[in-house]
Design the sequence.
């Protein structure tokens, strides 16, 4: 893995991303992560991580990443951080006071989105090997060992079910799907997973540790930047893919005052540009890339909802990508100047 990482960085890679809550990265131990983070630190590249857990598990999971940063000096970015803000904010403040380079992103919603397998199935199943997992789920003895998720099922809504016979389930709460199928919620979840070879997406409500108060407190933190974590598959994806950035402007700047307008560019672009080494982006400077968004502060507002997630925002008047207008007077121009960076 170290050689593969070195090769990727030599070929222009901007860092390393780990999905420590998902297979197969969930099997990575401290020694492996230390070896990889040492390489990143030596090359001046960040470690970006979906942590091993969120909500009530977030403080322990964040501590793991901060300990890696302390041991190696690697710059660290946490993906879509949410959970108890008082504890998480304290850990972040301590890390910054120690001189660690730590940032995180979040989105302004109290529901998340993921694959149903992560929500419904335990980590001891080999989820990275779909065929093996599906074979095990046919075994009644294995099914009997599956932990109950009675606290989770009421919070789950199906977003993507790539099976024509089950397309009707998209956008419905899992409890309603189970009732229509005449199954328990657990059996309905397994039925969907088997019928799609584990390819089911869902939107789910966070537990109480990710409250409105915590979400807003984290958004005000100096290490914060916005990130939509957008998933666009299915008939009812999470509205964050369409609404995150304008929601921050319309609700959290104009209505709630969590930031003032001069602060907004740092949260929405500047911190991200610095974190990923995009020196010519993220701020208005002579010689920089002309990536600009023109908004009407009085009217910018997200319209995407959980019921209608693909609604385009209002109040965005113009967009320039590398100086080329792609949106003018609220309408697409047809120009596609964007390139991977």
Sequence:
């Amino acid at each position: 893995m170290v050689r593969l990482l070195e090769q990727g960085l030599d070929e222009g890679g901007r860092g390393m991303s780990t999905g420590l809550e998902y297979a197969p990265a969930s099997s990575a131990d401290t020694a492996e992560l230390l070896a990889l983070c040492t390489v990143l630190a030596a090359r001046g590249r960040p470690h970006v991580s979906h942590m091993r857990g969120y909500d009530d598990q977030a403080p322990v999971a964040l501590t793991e990443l901060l300990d890696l940063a302390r041991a190696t000096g690697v710059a660290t970015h946490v993906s879509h951080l949410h959970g108890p803000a008082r504890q998480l904010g304290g850990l972040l403040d301590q890390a910054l006071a120690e001189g660690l380079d730590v940032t995180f992103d979040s989105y302004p919603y109290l529901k998340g989105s993921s694959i149903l397998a992560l929500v419904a199935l335990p980590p001891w199943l080999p989820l990275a090997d779909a065929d093996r997992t599906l074979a095990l789920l046919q075994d009644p003895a294995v099914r009997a060992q599956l932990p109950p998720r009675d606290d989770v099922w009421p919070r789950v809504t199906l977003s993507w079910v790539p099976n024509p016979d089950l397309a009707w389930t998209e956008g419905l709460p899992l409890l309603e799907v189970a009732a229509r199928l005449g199954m328990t919620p657990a059996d309905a979840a397994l039925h969907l997973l088997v019928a799609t070879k584990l390819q089911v997406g869902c939107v789910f409500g966070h537990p109480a540790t990710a409250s409105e108060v915590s979400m807003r407190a984290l958004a005000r933190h100096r290490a914060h930047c916005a990130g939509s974590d957008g998933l666009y598959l299915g008939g009812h994806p999470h509205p964050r893919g369409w609404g995150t950035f304008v929601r921050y402007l319309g609700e959290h700047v104009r209505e709630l005052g969590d930031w003032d307008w001069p602060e907004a560019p740092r949260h929405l672009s500047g911190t991200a540009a610095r974190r990923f080494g995009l020196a010519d982006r993220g701020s208005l400077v002579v010689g920089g890339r002309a990536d600009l968004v023109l908004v009407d502060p009085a009217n910018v507002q997200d319209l995407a909802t959980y019921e209608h997630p693909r609604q385009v925002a209002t109040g965005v008047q113009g967009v320039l990508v590398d100086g080329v207008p792609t949106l003018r007077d609220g309408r697409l121009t047809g120009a596609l100047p964007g390139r991977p960076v």
Residues 240-255 form the longest helix (16 residues). The longest strand covers residues 316-321.
